[in-house]
From TrEMBL:
Record carries keyword 4Fe-4S: no
UniProt-recorded name of the protein: Phosphate ABC transporter ATP-binding protein
UniProt-listed InterPro entries: AAA+_ATPase, ABC_transporter-like_ATP-bd, ABC_transporter-like_CS, MetN_ABC_transporter-like, P-loop_NTPase, PstB-like
Classification via Pfam families: ABC_tran
GO molecular function, one term: ATP binding
């Protein structure tokens, strides 16, 4: 049963009458990486939290491929992932416990995942002692083990150095290749050009554009998107 196409129709989130999401219309297919761009406060994080059920919309329709909402098939990773005060191995297998996976199988799956994300030699270390980049890789491995159909990433590389960013991007691509649909926010426009299949441009709680990555950066349809690209992209993107 697929969560896709995922359709949002006139989705509003208006806490205390303030229009944070202001009539979002959006259709997402089940493949590829969709990057959500937009200025600070545009509502990008709120949109992701709405998609995974953390924020109930004030009004509007969210249709997950005609299926009822099923949070078990949706994963989310935040800019600062939560780490239990326990080992890297226990942290990476956390999502398997509620699924009834026994301890031995959890360990085997966890160790295999740590190999994939380059943390096998840290399995017995305290997860909270990992660097920011390592913690983000661990958070991605943890959610990857639960085989989500939809993975939401909220600025996962915002506070990382370039080599840690590259490691995270490699894992994100592998998760996509493994079949998950990825929706991700970033302020790093270079990253958007490296990872995205399509771009959703959000401003003042509205989807202003939804275009291919090439289309968005070479021929932005709105003045707002043009200004956004010019203001935050200090280099020429050559497609
Ligand atoms: N749970 C919430 N309840 C009420 N208001 C919220 C909630 N979460 C966020 N907001 C408000 O919604 C607005 C949009 O916030 P959001 O975090 O989605 O912006 P953003 O586009 O992700 O910005 P940034 O790029 O700075 O992270 C902000 O004014 C924020 O204070």
């Amino acid at each position: 049963m697929s969560l896709f196409p995922l359709r949002l129709q006139q989705v509003h989130f208006s806490p205390n009458g303030r229009h944070v999401l202001d009539g979002v219309d959006l259709t997402l297919t089940g493949d590829g990486i969709t990057i959500v761009l937009g200025p600070n406060g545009a509502g990008k994080s709120v949109l992701l939290r709405t998609l995974c059920g953390l924020i109930p919309p004030s009004s509007g329709v969210l249709d997950y491929g005609g299926q009822p909402f099923d949070g078990a098939r949706i994963g989310m990773v935040f800019q600062h992932p939560m780490m239990l005060r326990s080992s890297v191995l226990e942290n990476v297998t956390l999502g398997l416990r509620p699924r009834g996976v026994g301890r031995r199988e959890r360990e085997a799956c966890g160790l295999a995942m740590l190999e994939r994300i380059g943390l096998a030699d840290r399995a017995r270390d305290n997860a909270r002692r990992l660097s920011g980049g390592e913690q983000q890789r661990l958070a991605l491995g943890r959610v990857w083990l639960t085989r989500p159909q939809l993975l939401l990433l909220d600025e996962p590389t915002a506070s990382l150095d370039p080599s840690a960013v590259e490691a995270v991007e490699t894992i994100v691509r592998e998760i996509r290749t493994d079949g998950a649909k990825i929706v991700m926010t970033t302020h790093n426009l270079g990253q958007a050009t490296r990872l995205a299949d399509d771009i959703v441009f959000l401003a003042e709680g509205k989807v202003r554009e939804h275009a291919s990555v090439r289309g968005f950066f070479t021929q932005p349809a709105s003045e707002e998107a043009k200004r956004f690209i010019e203001g935050e992209l200090p280099w020429h993107v050559a497609f």
